[in-house]
Design a protein that fits this description.
The structure holds 2 protein chains of 2 kinds.
Chain A lengths: L3 E3 L4 E4 L4 E7 L6 E7 L6 E6 L4 E3 L2 E6 L4 E6 L8 E8 L7 E2 L3 E6 L1
Chain B lengths: L3 E4 L2 E4 L5 E7 L6 E7 L6 E7 L5 E2 L8 E7 L2 E6 L8 E8 L6 E3 L3 E5 L1
Parallel strand pairs in B: 2-11
Antiparallel strand pairs in B: 1-3, 3-8, 4-5, 4-9, 5-6, 7-8, 9-10, 9-11
Classes of the chains: A mainly beta, B mainly beta.
Chain lengths: ~110, ~120
């Protein structure tokens, strides 16, 4: 079983839509979780960290469900510029180990 | 925020030659850097963890004699692809963890094409 699993998509949504991605992780002892965004042929950039209590940053909301071992990313009012691949990253309580999901591709269409 | 710079951004080389890619942390000291490769439409695959002043830790299946990693200072790690072949053509990205933090900062990536 992979450490981190994501639905590759693509998710094709119209502008203004709300879209949600999930990411499951296998190590129940994992402590740190992140969502990164990667544009085509570019390096990943941190979108947001995921805290136990959940966190929100503008149109983006991240949540952690430890019981079911998944994290989620919700994007409200999608913009064309949100089109990208969203990577789930999990740190399994080892400061120098990060596991990446395969990424979920989002296409926001006019 | 922390900045990681990678060079060159693109390189084309002939089969059999060696290519060196540099990864620098510009405004912080990085005792640990990570090297990844990414094939088209696939996720990042960790190749190795580069530790300043010691040998790199390679992931299973990554040939350490093929992909030489040197982390001679707290701000520079290099990846050398030796005797490159067309199947080594890929996007290579480095990252470093910011001082005292969990966030990974990525270099801009290096696109290698081996003819």
């Amino acid at each position: 079983r992979k450490e981190v699993e994501q639905d590759p998509g693509p998710f094709n949504v119209p502008e203004g839509a709300t879209v949600a991605f999930n990411c499951t992780y296998s190590n129940s002892a994992s402590q740190s979780f992140f969502w990164y965004r990667q544009d085509c042929r570019k390096e990943p950039k941190l979108l947001m960290s995921v805290y136990s209590s959940g966190n929100e940053d503008g149109r983006f909301t991240a949540q952690l469900n430890r019981a079911s071992q998944y994290i989620s990313l919700l994007i409200r009012d999608s913009k064309l510029s949100d089109s990208a691949t969203y990577l789930c990253v999990v740190n399994p309580n080892n400061f120098n180990k990060f596991y990446f999901g395969s990424g979920t591709k989002l296409n926001v269409k006019p | 925020g922390a900045v990681v710079s990678q060079h060159p951004s693109r390189v084309i080389c002939k089969s059999g030659t060696s290519v060196k890619i540099e990864c620098r942390s510009l405004d912080f000291q990085a005792t640990t850097m990570f090297w990844y490769r990414q094939f088209p439409k696939q996720s990042l695959m960790l190749m190795a963890t580069s530790n300043e002043g010691s040998k790199a830790t390679y992931e299973q299946g990554v040939e350490k004699d093929k992909f030489l990693i040197n982390h001679a200072s707290l701000t520079l790690s290099t990846l050398t692809v030796t005797s490159a072949h067309p199947e080594d053509s890929s996007f290579y990205i480095c990252s470093a963890r910011g001082e005292g933090g969990w966030e990974l900062f990525f270099g801009e990536g290096s696109r290698l094409t081996v003819l």
